[in-house]
Amino acid sequence: MMKNIILLALAFVLGSIPFGIITAKARGVDLKKVGSGNIGATNVLRSLGKGPALITLLGDILKGTLAVAIGRYFGVEPLYEGLMGVAAIVGHNYSLFLGFRGGKGVATSIGVLLLYLPYAALITLLVWIVVVLVTKYSSLGAIVSFALLPLHVLLINARETTAFFISIFISLFIIIRHKDNIKRLIMGTERKIGQRE
User: Fold this and answer.
1) Closest Cα partner for 83 from 169, 158, 143?
2) Judging by beta carbons within 10 Å of its beta carbon (0-12, 13-18, 19+), is residue 6 exposed, middle or buried?
3) CA distance 156 to 170
4) Fewest beta carbons less than 10 Å away: which of 128, 152, 170, 186?
């Protein structure tokens, strides 16, 4: 039990690393004061361009994947492996290094799914891509793709009870963190991908 607690704490700290902030700061920009103020790749894209956005995206994905990989390396059971992924997402959303503030967890969640539920990661990415190509709204892509996550986990393998409940946690985190985006989408004031101030 102590090992699992230590690993969960490690996953939270790992998830807390704010790659967007670090990338922007290296270019002399305070990411929290530009664009939407969010620390994720979408705001980096709007504020700094494609290169920094790609670095941020890969960093945020990697920390989710690495959290699950560490759990797998130490032989934790599937429940704790999934919870380590969730801990990394929580770390990104409520970063230890940013006064327990953070991003929305989309890239980190994809990183978790890439190792924990690869088929779910693929479907979620495909849905996100389709929604974004059609609407140009990154937030809407995230909301729709992750809202459907528990459903396709259940449909593809109904016996994976643990994975189903982990997918519900991930889905809820994404939707809750996008509540302001949902309001702006309804009001028609949400910015599209690449759209600047």
Assistant:
1) 169
2) exposed
3) 17
4) 186
| Closest by Cα among 195, 185, 173 to 104 | 173
What is the mean pLDDT, run by run of 10 residues, along the chain of 197 residues? 92 96 89 82 85 93 97 93 96 93 93 94 94 92 96 82 93 93 91 66
To 5 degrees, how large is the angle CA 176–CA 178–CA 179? 70
Place of tokens 């101030």: 197
Q: What is the pLDDT of residue 125?
A: 94
User: Token pair of 95, please?
Assistant: 């970063």
Are 91 and 127 in contact by the 8 Å Cβ rule? The answer is no
**The token pair that represents 14 in the structure block:** 């790992």
The pTM of the full predicted model, rounded to 2 decimals, is 0.91
DSSP state letter for 38: -
Rounded to a whole number of angstroms, the distance between the first and last alpha carbons of the chain is: 49
